[in-house]
Amino acid sequence: MKKGLTLSDILVTVLVSVIFAVIYNLWWAVTNTLQPLGLHLDQLMYGMWFSAAVVAYLIIPKMGIALLAEFAAGAGETIMMGRFDIPTIIYALLQGLACEIIFAIFRYKSRALMVAVLAGMAAAIISLPIDWYYGYLNEVATWNLILLISFRIISGAILAGVFPYLLVKALDQTGVTKLFRPASKDDYDAL
């Protein structure tokens, strides 16, 4: 496998990002439905916004893919919203970078479930200081803040870790991802 990104790597990453940009825009309806229920239940759905980076990396495990995927998904989300939203771009860049750091720790060689879960959790954690900067986390009571942080990290682990892993594993079984790397039962057992 070539080390650098090829044109097909970039095109597939952008395609994954466009799909997730659509999902991200639709996902607002899900979180907005849960928000009035209180207790930060909407945070249990927050991890979906970190998924593009993990899915793209699991398909194409190369340096820069996660950052490109999350940035492109965030940019696509702002385009679909009909306005250029700087905070969304900042979130996307930092979330993609957090995922890249996790993948770099494993030297871009592991596609294991635990690596995907750690990447999802890292993206969740990096989103918290941004929320603090934009001013609403510092107004939340301590117990409420702990609940919010816990739910967001759990969501990152499940929706941006377990879900992308299972999705890409299903794609591997259909043969769709064979262009980028072989995936057989032996490959998954080796993880």
TrEMBL record:
<protein>
    <submittedName>
        <fullName>Substrate-specific component YkoE of thiamin-regulated ECF transporter for HydroxymethylPyrimidine</fullName>
    </submittedName>
</protein>
<keyword id="KW-0472">Membrane</keyword>
<keyword id="KW-0812">Transmembrane</keyword>
<feature type="transmembrane region" description="Helical">
    <location>
        <begin position="146"/>
        <end position="168"/>
    </location>
</feature>
<dbReference type="InterPro" id="IPR017195">
    <property type="entry name" value="ABC_thiamin-permease_prd"/>
</dbReference>
<feature type="transmembrane region" description="Helical">
    <location>
        <begin position="48"/>
        <end position="69"/>
    </location>
</feature>
<feature type="transmembrane region" description="Helical">
    <location>
        <begin position="89"/>
        <end position="106"/>
    </location>
</feature>
<keyword id="KW-1133">Transmembrane helix</keyword>
<feature type="transmembrane region" description="Helical">
    <location>
        <begin position="113"/>
        <end position="134"/>
    </location>
</feature>
<dbReference type="Pfam" id="PF09819">
    <property type="entry name" value="ABC_cobalt"/>
</dbReference>
<feature type="transmembrane region" description="Helical">
    <location>
        <begin position="6"/>
        <end position="27"/>
    </location>
</feature>
